[in-house]
Structure formats: C-alpha cells, structure tokens
Amino acid sequence: ELRHRASPWQRNLGYPLAMLGLLALTGISVLIVCFHVLELLLDDAAMPRGIQDASLGQVSFSIFGSFGAALQVVLIFYLMVSSVVGFYSSPLFTRLLPERQDTPLTKIIGNCVSLLVLSSALPVFSRTLGITRFDLLGDFGRFNWLGNFYIVFLYNMGFAGLTTLCLVKRVSWAVQAELIRAFGEDG
C-alpha cells in the first residue's frame, strides 16, 4: 500500500538507491569480517583484546585514516539498525512491537530491556567482528572469552557465512521473482 502511494521519484530512484546502499553496507561489512578472519589466521594481534597504550587522538584506529573511521561509524550504525530490525522481525519478538497509543507498561519495559541488551552487546559485537578496534571507554576487550581464538574465529566465520547466505538468498529471490514476472507476462 505504501509503495503504491509513493511518488514515481521514490519508486524509481529512492527505493533502488536505498537497496544499493544496503547491499553495499552489507557487502563492505562481510569483506571487513573476511579480512579480519585472515588477520586472525595470520596474526595473534588481531584478537579483540583491550588496547593498553592507545590514547584517543594519538593513534588512528583505522588504516584508512579519517575515511576509515567514518566508515566504521557508518557500519556500526548499520549493524545497530539491522540488529534492531532483525530482533523485531523474528517471530518470537513480533508481539513486543509497540502499538501507537495502545502500548501497555509491561511491553514498554520489555522494549526498554531489549534495546538496552542490544545496545550493550553492540560494542562487543563490532569489536569481535573486527569492524573496529576502539574500546568505547567501557573496556569491553577484557572479556576472557575474547582471547579464545576458536570462539572469535567461529563467530566471525558464522557472521560472514550467514550474512552472505542471506544476501545471496534475498538477491536471488528478487531476481528470480522479476524473471518469472517478466517471462510470465510475455508468455
């Protein structure tokens, strides 16, 4: 219904650009995680432990300088939004979605707790995936399990594999549906 009410500019330019942006952000995050997996295999320093002597402003947290730092911020924001959307899209938590002017207090508290847990996990998540090395002043790199190579390696491989699988599935389904629609109208 919203697609039919959208202007032609939104349908023909806005939606495709948004999809290309989402595909690009997903692809970039998978590439960064794949490079992090290679770093894990080659160098022990790639483990997401705390940084002891790196002071803010003295050491660049990205090899690409300011552009890399801005890309990290964008990717972390993208991961935050996608994790919230994925959380509320899962069948177990769809009932937790607030309704406009009709949300009971228990549902509001449940939403607050859920968003607090998601936002607390985000620094550890982005650091474990190798998207950033920044400690976020919480010293999240000192968790003991972040020093376990197998856990970090399997976490990175799982993220890269599942994200690639979802991306391929989503894109291939869309292409397949368009092909069926195109050939179905001609035949």
Automatic annotation (TrEMBL):
Q: Which UniProt keywords apply?
A: Cell membrane, Endocytosis, Endoplasmic reticulum, Membrane, Receptor, Transmembrane, Transmembrane helix, Wnt signaling pathway
Q: Where in the cell is it found?
A: Cell membrane; Endoplasmic reticulum membrane
The UniProt record lists the keyword Endoplasmic reticulum: yes
One of the record's GO cellular component terms: plasma membrane
Q: Which residues form the signal peptide?
A: none
Q: Which InterPro entries match?
A: LIMR, LMBR1-like_membr_prot
| Molecular functions (GO terms) | transmembrane signaling receptor activity
What are the recorded Gene Ontology BP terms?
Answer: receptor-mediated endocytosis; Wnt signaling pathway
TM spans, by residue?
12-38, 58-88, 108-125, 145-168
List the membrane topology term(s). Answer: Multi-pass membrane protein
Stated family: Belongs to the LIMR family.
Record's Pfam families? LMBR1
Name used for this protein in its record: LMBRL protein
Gene (UniProt): Lmbr1l_0
